[in-house]
């Protein structure tokens, strides 16, 4: 049989493991976001120390490298001006007749199901710089969102 058709072992043909992708742009975070990154890093270090098997340990190390990079590149966003929406703001909006309160946070802190939206999200982008009482365009509709209130996210 030709050498081209022989397989020495499954080890030679495993799919490569790439690093976890990093979001594009600056890594702006809130103080809470930085604390969450540091806590996740500590959890992973403990899990790596406790893991006995090589493959799961390598997956944990890969995730740890992601969080170490996120911590290293993190920039705590300056607090927004009083009454102006920015990273670290809690913004109450009226959209399609419904009132909703969202927090504008960094990528790693974002959780849309808990109303924490990344500053890079389209909704956050139209709100940043907005003030109470202002109406902003969204989704191609003119003055689609009314900013009802803006405050700092409580610590």
Q: Which class do the helix and strand fractions yield? A: alpha/beta
State the end-to-end distance.
Answer: 69 Å
N-to-C order of helices and strands: EHHEEEEHEE
Spatial strand sequence of the major β-sheet: 5-4-3-7-6
Radius of gyration, rounded?
22 Å
Overall body shape:
elongated
Mean pLDDT: 90
Uncertain stretches: none
Q: What about the largest sheet?
A: 5 strands, mixed
Number of strands: 7
Share of residues in strands? 25-35%
Structure characterization notes:
The chain has 155 residues and is α/β, with parallel strands linked by helices. The protein has 3 helices and 7 strands. It has helices at residues 31-50, 54-73, 122-127, and strands at residues 27-29, 74-76, 89-95, 98-105, 116-118, 135-138, 141-152. Strands 5-4-3-7-6 form a 5-stranded mixed beta sheet. Strands 1-2 form a two-stranded parallel ribbon. A hairpin with a 2-residue loop joins strand 3 and strand 4 (98-105). Helix 1 runs antiparallel to helix 2. The chain starts with 26 loop residues before the first strand and ends with a strand. The mean pLDDT is 90.
């Amino acid at each position: 049989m030709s050498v081209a058709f022989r397989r020495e072992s499954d080890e030679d043909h495993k799919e490569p493991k790439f690093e976890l992708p990093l979001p594009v742009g600056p890594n702006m975070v809130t103080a809470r976001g930085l604390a969450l990154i540091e806590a996740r890093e500590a959890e992973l270090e403990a899990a790596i120390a406790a893991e006995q098997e090589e493959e799961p340990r390598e997956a944990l190390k890969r995730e740890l490298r992601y969080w170490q990079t996120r911590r290293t590149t993190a920039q705590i966003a300056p607090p927004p001006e009083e009454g102006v929406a920015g990273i670290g703001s809690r913004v109450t909006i009226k959209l399609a007749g419904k009132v909703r309160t969202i927090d504008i946070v960094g990528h790693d802190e974002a959780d849309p199901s808990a109303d924490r939206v990344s500053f890079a999200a389209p909704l956050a982008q139209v709100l940043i710089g907005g003030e109470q009482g202002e109406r902003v365009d969204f989704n191609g509709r003119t003055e689609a969102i009314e900013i009802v209130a803006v405050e700092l996210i409580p610590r």
